[in-house]
Amino acid sequence: MAMTVPWAQWFLGFLLVFSSIGVLLARKPVHASLSFLLTLMSLAGLYLQLDAQFIAVMQVLVYAGAILVIFMFVIILFQDAYHKIDLLESQSSRPLLIFSVVSFLFTLGLLGNALRYLTPSQRTVPKDFGMVESLGKALYVDFFFPFEAVILLFLVALIGALYIAKRGD
Amino acid sequence: MDISLMIFISMAMFAVGVIGVLTKRNALIFFLSIELMLNAANLLFVTFAYHWGNMTGLVWVFFVLVVAAAEAAVGLALIINLFRSKQVVDVDQYNELRE
What we know:
The complex is a heterodimer of chains A (169) and B (99). Chain A has 169 residues and is mainly α. Chain A has helices at 6-25, 29-49, 53-78, 81-87, 93-114, 132-142, 144-165. Chain A contains seven helices and no strands. The radius of gyration of chain B is 17 Å and the shape is elongated. At the A-B interface, helix 1, helix 2, helix 3, helix 4 and helix 5 of A face helix 1, helix 2 and helix 3 of B.
């Protein structure tokens, strides 16, 4: 069982929120993706705090190891394309930004109201919660059909990505 | 442990993702914002799996990870193809279907 440290949750939470804001504020896509890497790492730390060790490892492997690396390759392809975006003036972002901030505050209020009715958990966390063995058992026994379906989905996505990225001639 | 902190963190992260999708014009940042929203949903899954001591939430996180990887492959292929057609990654420039 991972130990649960209260200050670590606050620290990782702030790191998570500010680095995800950093994704939007960064001017260059490279800086945005590095900020996203920090987001993923602090998210993995939060998963450890929540006793989900296997998911934390998968998070680092799949996101930081695979998705972000593909992302870096695409950024290398584009090089200085972001300069062109800076040259053109934006069309309708201001009202949308205001709208999204207002709707965020509205949802925050709704959520704060709803959290008052949250049942305190009388759970007994299983000893092997979040470990590879119990998760694998759940995945291969209880969720066998969705697991196979997801494999098919992945195969289709793979073929589709190859087909789309191929030169269309 | 009080899980309200986790719920608020997850919601803030999702909101940042939504703001990014609504306001950013760079297709790459757009894409990162979608990933942020997926990760916010994942955090909520893990939080409630922990809260109820139930493994099912973790299994769904696994599925979301797979879908995110598939989405990354297809999305980046699409972005590469778009870039080939016009040499820009600004999503406002791709409006042929609208006109």
